[in-house]
Amino acid sequence: MPASECKASNSIITHTASGKTTTYGKVAEAAAKLEPPTDVKLKDPKDWTIAGKGLKRLDTVDKTTGAMVYGIDVKLPGMLNAAIKDCPVFGGKVKSFDQAKIASMKGVKKVVQVGDSAIAVVADTWWHAKTALDALPIVWDEGDNAKVSSESIAKWLAEGLDDAQPAYVGNKNGDAKAAIAGAAKKIEAVYSYPYQNHATMEPMNATALYTSDKCEVWCGTQNGEAAFAAVLEVSGLPAEKCDVHKLMLGGGFGRRGMTDYVRQAVAIAKQMPGTPVKLLWSREEDMQHGKYHPITQCKLTGAFDADNNLVALHYRLSGQSILFSVRPEALQNGMDPAAFQGVAQSGEAAIGYSVPNLLIEHAMRNPHVPPGFWRGVNVNHNAIYLECFMDELAQAAGQDPLEFRRKLMGKHPKHLAVLNAVAEKIGWGTPAPQGVYRGIAQVMGYGSYVAGAAEISVTDSSKIKVHRIVASTDPGYIVNPAQVERQIAGSFVYGLSALFYGGCTVKDGRIEQSNFDNYNSMRINEMPKVEAVMVPSGGFWGGVGEPTIGVAAPAVLNAYFAATGKRVRTFPLRGQNITFA
């Protein structure tokens, strides 16, 4: 029958004229031989029967009972375990080690060097491997990077804020510098954002089995193709002789898009052919050898005319480029376009304001601490810088922060729509409860428009209670609204944890934070109520898991200013002795 005369629903194909039916199963074999159509018209959302409805996850029970198998859970016959220690200073090397000192320790099978910078101990159990590794005398060649500190990095980045230094221009219209020079009033501020660790609950791990004719790896990964390519490269075997078995990962947030732990596992297994070896990083190794959210500083200058209209904005970013480190082929004539996420001229992370004279630029400075994609990526710090400064500009103009933004958003209706949605939901135009203060922010990231509004109270100027967070999102279409709500709530856990507790510092070239005692995360009692407002406008498909993180911090920070009159520009808040109440 012609396809135009048939309809498909609930696993049954019906010929509408005759009423005859068949099942998907009966035609599956024949259908598999057909050439797939190249142009498929998507169903109109008004005709959706499953998409658009909130659905429960299918894996929740297995996750909560412990039945779910993660990479860390892999067990194979005859498997050994490996612990690894990389040079504590990034870029350093192994100078020497004395394996004889631990050769007789319980369970130890072998000591192997991995690349030029790491040593691993293979043993019958992971604890025996780690215990022996801790006892192994290792001499490191730390190199010149051992002289680097947070202070030296900050000084170097601060120098990049000087207009005399070279910078890449990512967004420009008019002549911002000339407009600022001739303005009736100008406002200036400098913000800084630290390294952040992914701090996944499950440390990096991978299990590898190598023979001269086959290499198999079991791991959690966010990039199966990259993991597979890493196995090919390190094993030296062709693709048809390699397999990567993807398992559930206990947190990724961008960290498991990297392949360093996969490479190490294969390199160790190659030195023990025929024996499966599970490599598990210690928590300390995981904390101190990450691929961190990039460190940046930002100098912002805004200028007003005599009527308090914003006539110019100069946004100068100084700091690391993730693409320079992990995907240099994606640079555009040396510039990292991703550095402008949230403040770009156009695209999936465009700025939501129109200013007559605008200059947004990036002075690229890459310290030796390796950056990586950290959930939300560059949207996170760019949203803090721009949205907190928008509040500073509103204050200087003597205007309400919401109304000030609205005046600049006439050409950005989708940005404005999500901002209006959170303002309405949180009751911006009505008085807040006694002792409660509000803050608001908006940004675009990953093709989605998002906004957030927070209600907080503050005691002793240093203890913050976040009572409510309202978040709105327009990702175009929403397939599972229940999952969108979960992602929004989870993004606020991540964003507020980073704001209050995160931040990695560098001393003697190495990361100082080593475990959850000095790199904390939010607790349940600190988590505010999260209310999600969905305003899908259709016509495009945006992301959900990352964009909302960007508005978490600025919404709270702007509320903190409303409560105290104090503006915080350096993070995390624990560094300012500001904590959760």
Quick recap:
The protein has 14 helices and 24 strands. It has helices spanning 24-31, 60-65, 126-135, 150-159, 176-181, 224-235, 260-270, 283-288, 322-326, 379-397, 401-407, 413-426, 481-500, 549-564, and strands at 6-9, 12-15, 21-23, 80-86, 93-97, 108-114, 118-123, 138-141, 168-173, 185-193, 205-211, 214-219, 242-246, 277-280, 296-304, 310-319, 357-364, 437-445, 448-459, 463-474, 506-507, 510-511, 529-534, 579-580.
Commentary on this structure:
The chain starts with 5 loop residues before the first strand and ends with a strand. The longest helix is centred in the C-terminal third of the chain and has 20 residues, at 481-500. The protein has helices at residues 24-31, 60-65, 126-135, 150-159, 176-181, 224-235, 260-270, 283-288, 322-326, 379-397, 401-407, 413-426, 481-500, 549-564, and strands at 6-9, 12-15, 21-23, 80-86, 93-97, 108-114, 118-123, 138-141, 168-173, 185-193, 205-211, 214-219, 242-246, 277-280, 296-304, 310-319, 357-364, 437-445, 448-459, 463-474, 506-507, 510-511, 529-534, 579-580. It is an alpha+beta fold. Among the domains are: 3-41, no CATH class; 160-196 and 292-580, 2-Layer Sandwich (Aldehyde Oxidoreductase, domain 4). Helix content is 26%, strand content 26%. Strand 12 (214-219), helix 6 (224-235) and strand 13 (242-246) form a beta-alpha-beta unit.
